[in-house]
Amino acid sequence: MTRPASAKTLLRVLAGEAVDPPPIWLMRQAGRYLPEYRALRARTPSFLDFCYAPKIAAEATLQPIRRYGFDAAILFSDILVVPDALGQVVRFEAGEGPRLDPILDRAGFERLKPQIDLERLSPVFETIGRILETLPEETALIGFCGAPFTVASYMVAGRGTPDQGPARLMAYRDPELFAALIDRLVEASIAYLHRQIDAGVEVVQIFDTWAGALAPGEYERWCLEPLRRIAAAVSPRVPVIGFPKGIGARLAGFGEAAGVAGVGLDSGVDSFWAAKALPRGQTTQGNLDPLALVAGGPALEAGARRILDAFRGRPHIFNLGHGVTPQTPPEHVAALVELVRREGR
Ligand code: CP3
Prior knowledge:
Layout: H1 9-14, H2 35-42, H3 47-51, H4 54-68, E1 72-74, H5 81-85, E2 90-93, E3 97-100, H6 106-110, H7 122-134, E4 140-146, H8 148-157, H9 165-173, H10 175-199, E5 203-208, H11 218-234, E6 240-244, H12 251-258, E7 262-264, H13 271-277, E8 283-288, H14 290-295, H15 297-311, E9 316-320, H16 330-343
Parallel strand pairs: 1-4, 4-5, 5-6, 6-7, 7-8, 8-9
Antiparallel strand pairs: 2-3
């Protein structure tokens, strides 16, 4: 007999229930810190080809679940498949990160497809189906996309930048053009997430990794409002976790303003402050420093305990404040999962 979906702890917590111990999963839980990932990855030189190979992407998704028994799996893919499916040239150079043909002006924007090519993303939906064939029944499956501002920051600069300067400058100099790009991404994200949900994901997370770079006023327009539109479209179907990294005190009102079920906290946020400042029933997620996980030992234990103490009695999902880094010793992840399950009650 299959258990009702509500038995999955991640879904219970996103519905507002405080669960002890809290469910745990980690952003970038599939990746280069795992030897089995590196072995799988070595067989496919192009990272995008790797993301678009359903068997391989499903296997990468499941590797950390087998090893650690996390409460959630996150679809293995990347946020930059959306610009790829909008017709922008996207490449991943080994050791250098993503490279895109930058959108410099209106003509560059006009070269994008008017609508996202969901056919190109069909391998992603097939990956979801394959994951569900073997995912343990207590494990939730999370789908995701990048938030419009974060994705736009790569589309405009053509690469990662220290301060997202090119995108922020376009937003100041030509707000109409930037708004058109953000609108295109809002529509593309909604269509893409609906198809992920059709294929079986039970939760979606929207990564706004660079929201913290936005000045007041710009933040409302380019982070909050686009997220609100996406959440309004998909949250009648599945709970949405918003992750507006780096926005500091603006987190206090973020969940309500964006209309998301869960608020992701980055490592710079004091957990005790968040537990006080965010509304009582607001589900939170986070926020251990990924470097505490690299260090292990007392740093890991103190960091994890602080988070457990701060959020005890509140609906919370244990996670890092950003992704697992490649130099993380796999045994530290096992120690963290064990500690959270032992002491998180
Ligand atoms: O969390 C997971 O386990 C799911 C998979 C996932 C990846 N990227 C796999 C990946 C998710 C959710 C992402 C999101 C993502 N991708 C974000 C937002 C969150 C964040 O981490 O800030 C961003 C900004 C990207 C864009 C991106 N993809 C960059 C900048 C890079 C290169 C940097 C790096 O770490 O090498 C990637 C590549 C990438 N995406 C890798 C993985 C495992 C490494 C590529 C490889 O294996 O060679």
